[in-house]
Write a structure and sequence with these properties.
By secondary structure, the chain is of the alpha/beta class. It folds into two domains: 202 residues, Spore Coat Polysaccharide Biosynthesis Protein SpsA, Chain A (Alpha-Beta Complex); 102 residues, no CATH class. Strands 1, 2, 3, 4, 5, 6, 7, 8 and 9 form a nine-stranded mixed β-sheet that branches. Helix 8 packs across helix 13. The N and C termini lie far apart (56 Å).
Length: 344
C-alpha cells in the first residue's frame, strides 16, 4: 500500500506599496481559494499610506514592513524568509487569483517532483475600463497562452515555487530596486541549475492594473526591455520564449524598418527619399506586423470588437519600436555590469 503524502502547506506572499483598494480585493480573492493557504503574508514596501496594515489585519493576513522602499523582489524575499509553507505562492496586490489557482499550482508540484516552480497567466477579462489597460493586460495574457509549457522564466503575478529551492537560490536578485524582471532573472538561474519550470495556462488571475501611456513606454524600454536584453547576454543560449520568440523578433525588425524609412523620408535632408513610392516600405512594415500579430489582434476583436483590434495596431507598432530601442540600451547595461564584475 502506497502511503499518501500530506498536502503541502502554502504560504501566499504579496508585496504591496500604497495598494489600497486593490490589496483589499486581492486578499479577498486569496481567502476564497479552493485550496486554503497556511498563511498569507503581506509585505508593505514602506508605503506612505496607512491603510495597508488595516486591510491586512481585516483579512487575517500577517503584515511585515520594509524599513525603506526596496522594490517587490526584496519584499518577496522578506516574506519568503518568514514563511512556514513548503510552497511559496506569489501574487501581486493588483491581481485577483481565481479560486482554483493555488490548487492548480499545488497539483502540478505534487504530480511532478522534478518541477521546481509553476506559473500561470492573467485571464482574458481585465477589469480596468480604459482601452490602453485592456489592450496591455490582454496582450500579457495572450503571450503566456501561446508560450511553451516548459518555461525558461518565472512570473510572480501568479506563480508558485518550492520554498527550499527559492531559498537555495537566495531568492530574487537585489539588482532590481523597482518592479522589473526580477522574476525572469530567477527563472533563468533556476534553469541554469537544472531545475524545471512549468507554465500552467489554466492557472489564472484577473489583473486590475491601470496602464498609462508613459508607464507603458517606460516599462517596455527601461524596466523590462533593456534589463531583459542584458540578462540574455549573461545567459547565452536561453530558449526564445514569451516576448522573445522568433515572431516577436521579426516584428521588432519590421518596426525598425518602419522608423528607418520614416527618417529617410524627412524632407530637406541630404539623404531624403521621395515620399512616393518609398512610403510603401513603412506601410508594408506595418502590414507585416499586423500579420505576425494577427492572432492577438483577433483576440482583441472577439473580446472588444473590431475597433479594439484597429486601435491596438499602432500600439503594437510602438511596442516593437520600444523593443528595438531596448536592444542597444541592454548592451550598454550588460557592459556596465561586466565592468562592475571586473572591478569587484
Amino acid at each position: 500500500m502506497v502511503e499518501e503524502r500530506p498536502a503541502p502547506r502554502v504560504s501566499v506572499v504579496i508585496p504591496a506599496y500604497n495598494a489600497g483598494e486593490d490589496l483589499d480585493r486581492c486578499l479577498a480573492a486569496v481567502m476564497r481559494s479552493d485550496y486554503p493557504a497556511e498563511e498569507v503574508i503581506v509585505v508593505d514596501d514602506a508605503s506612505t499610506e496607512a491603510s495597508t496594515a488595516e486591510i491586512a489585519s481585516r483579512h487575517g493576513a500577517t503584515l511585515l514592513r520594509m524599513a525603506r522602499q526596496s522594490g517587490p523582489g526584496l519584499a518577496r524575499n522578506r516574506g519568503a524568509e518568514a514563511a512556514r509553507g513548503e510552497v511559496l505562492m506569489f501574487t501581486d496586490a493588483d491581481v485577483l487569483l481565481h479560486a482554483d489557482a493555488i490548487g492548480r499550482a499545488v497539483e502540478t508540484l505534487v504530480a511532478e517532483p522534478g518541477v521546481a516552480a509553476v506559473f500561470g497567466s492573467y485571464d482574458d477579462r481585465p477589469t480596468h475600463p480604459s482601452f490602453l489597460s485592456r489592450y496591455r493586460n490582454l496582450y500579457h495574457h495572450w503571450n503566456h497562452q501561446v508560450a511553451n509549457d516548459e518555461a525558461s522564466t518565472f512570473w510572480t503575478g501568479c506563480g508558485a515555487i518550492r520554498r527550499n529551492v527559492f531559498l537555495e537560490h537566495q531568492g530574487f536578485s537585489c539588482e532590481f530596486g523597482r518592479p522589473s524582471i526580477e522574476d525572469i532573472e530567477l527563472g533563468y538561474r533556476l534553469r541554469a541549475n537544472g531545475h524545471r519550470i512549468r507554465l500552467q495556462k489554466d492557472m489564472l488571475g484577473t489583473h486590475l492594473k491601470e496602464w498609462t501611456f508613459g508607464d507603458m513606454v517606460k516599462t517596455d524600454v527601461m524596466r523590462r526591455g533593456a534589463p531583459w536584453v542584458a540578462l540574455l547576454l549573461r545567459h547565452p543560449g536561453s530558449p526564445p520564449d514569451l516576448n522573445l520568440n522568433l515572431a516577436a523578433r521579426i516584428a521588432t525588425a519590421f518596426a525598425g524598418l518602419f522608423v528607418l524609412f520614416l527618417l529617410l523620408m524627412v524632407p530637406g535632408l541630404p539623404w531624403s527619399l521621395p515620399f512616393w513610392p518609398w512610403v510603401l516600405v513603412p506601410m508594408s512594415a506595418v502590414g507585416a506586423i499586423a500579420w505576425i500579430q494577427r492572432d492577438f489582434l483577433g483576440l482583441l476583436r472577439r473580446r472588444f470588437g473590431p475597433w479594439a483590434a484597429a486601435g491596438a495596431l499602432p500600439l503594437q507598432l510602438l511596442f516593437f519600436i520600444c523593443c528595438g530601442l531596448a536592444v542597444p540600451l541592454g548592451y550598454l547595461r550588460h557592459w556596465a555590469w561586466r565592468r562592475r564584475q571586473r572591478s569587484d
